[in-house]
Amino acid sequence: QVQLVESGGGLVQAGGSLRLSCAASGSFSDINIMGWYRQAPGKHRELVATITSGGITNYADSVKGRFTVSRDNAKNTVYLQMNSLKPEDTAVYYCNFRSPVVGSLPSWGQGTQVTISS
């Protein structure tokens, strides 16, 4: 069982920046994928960015060049640096943890609200 605790959401003006953090605890393999998804009102949850324990990253096209995902494996923590924020980035952001173990289910954080004012 993996527990995820997020922090760093808030309200900023368009063009501003925010940094989200997510710390994982519990029992899990050192080989894993952590990342961020988001869900805006009335929309499905969507991928924002992921990073493997080896440092391979993947981004949604809508955030490429503006967001940077990183991790500190020693702290079991993943970060999302969000720059040049737009009103359409407004959503609840969820931390995600996935294990390579076949049949394992992903773990989710409780979500943190990010609101961008125009």
Report on the structure:
The protein contains no helices and eleven strands. The protein has strands at residues 2-7, 10-13, 18-26, 33-39, 46-52, 57-59, 67-72, 77-82, 91-98, 107-108, 112-117. Strand 5 (46-52) and strand 6 form a beta hairpin. 31% of the residues are buried.
Describe the structure using short key phrases.
0% helix; mainly beta; 118 residues; globular
Would you kindly provide a brief summary of this structure?
Helices cover 0% and strands 54% of the residues. With 118 residues, it is mainly beta.
Total strands: 11
Helix/strand/pairing category? mainly beta
Order of helices and strands: EEEEEEEEEEE
- The residue fraction in helices comes out at under 10%
Main sheet properties: 7 strands, mixed
Radius of gyration (Å)? 14 Å
First and last CA, distance? 40 Å
**Structure annotation, total helices:** 0
Mean pLDDT: 96
Kindly estimate the percentage of residues that lie in beta strands according to DSSP. Answer: over 45%
What would the principal axes of the Cα set say about the shape?
A: globular
The unreliable regions are: none
Protein topology:
Layout: E1 2-7, E2 10-13, E3 18-26, E4 33-39, E5 46-52, E6 57-59, E7 67-72, E8 77-82, E9 91-98, E10 107-108, E11 112-117
Parallel strand pairs: 2-11
Antiparallel strand pairs: 1-3, 3-8, 4-5, 4-9, 5-6, 7-8, 9-10, 9-11
